[in-house]
Amino acid sequence: MELTVATMVVFTSVLLLRWEKRMKNIFVAAGSLALLLSSPFAVSAQGVPRGAAQGAAEGNAVAGPVGGVVGGVVGGVTGGVKGLLGLDQRPRFHEYVGRQHHTSYSYRDSIGVGTVLPGGEVTYYDVPQEYGVRDYRYAVINGQTVLVDPRTNRIVEILD
Q1: CA Rg value for the chain
Q2: Packing angle between helix 5-42 and helix 48-82, nearest 10 degrees?
Q3: Strand pairing of 144-149 and 137-141?
Q4: Would you give the distance in Å from CA 28 to the centre of its chain?
Q5: I want to staple 47 with a disulfide (CB 3.0 to 4.6 A). Which of 7, 84, 104, 109 is the partner?
Q6: Long-range contacts of 128-133 (CB under 8 A, 24+ apart)
Q7: Which of 1-5, 43-47, 79-83 has the lowest mean pLDDT?
Q8: What is the rounded CA–CA span in Å between residue 95 and residue 98?
Q9: Rounded to whole angstroms, how far apart are CA atoms 144 and 102?
Q10: 51-104: per-residue pLDDT in tens?
């Protein structure tokens, strides 16, 4: 079988296109891996929404649209694991609550995330703006500081 110059050019072009596609896939995978490894640090003070937004932005910058999707998912999960208040904010917030000297509400059962507190009986306090937690309030229940969704009276995070 005799190869013509045209056949060799087509064959070479096909190989280069396949190689280019593989390199793009490798680049996206490498960028996604870098994002996965760096996301826990990048969103250390973030909750789910901000963690997802920041992860998507960083992923898009590193690996394009696919990296944005991966970054959004990883950032959201990481932000969710670390809660609404970031790990680095918790000690400061705990000190802040201690300085306020709020009385603790005595709840007869054990509390946990998802517990619905009795409406009208528990006093909710605003979270200072510097902590970036909007739409939630805090309360002191059985000596523990909790974040509460005031619309549903549901505990969304226990901070102690």
Answers
A1: 25
A2: 70
A3: antiparallel
A4: 21
A5: 84
A6: 128/96, 131/85, 131/89, 131/93, 132/45, 132/47, 132/50, 133/47, 133/84, 133/85
A7: 43-47
A8: 5
A9: 11
A10: 556 666 666 676 677 666 655 555 554 444 446 777 788 889 989 999 999 999
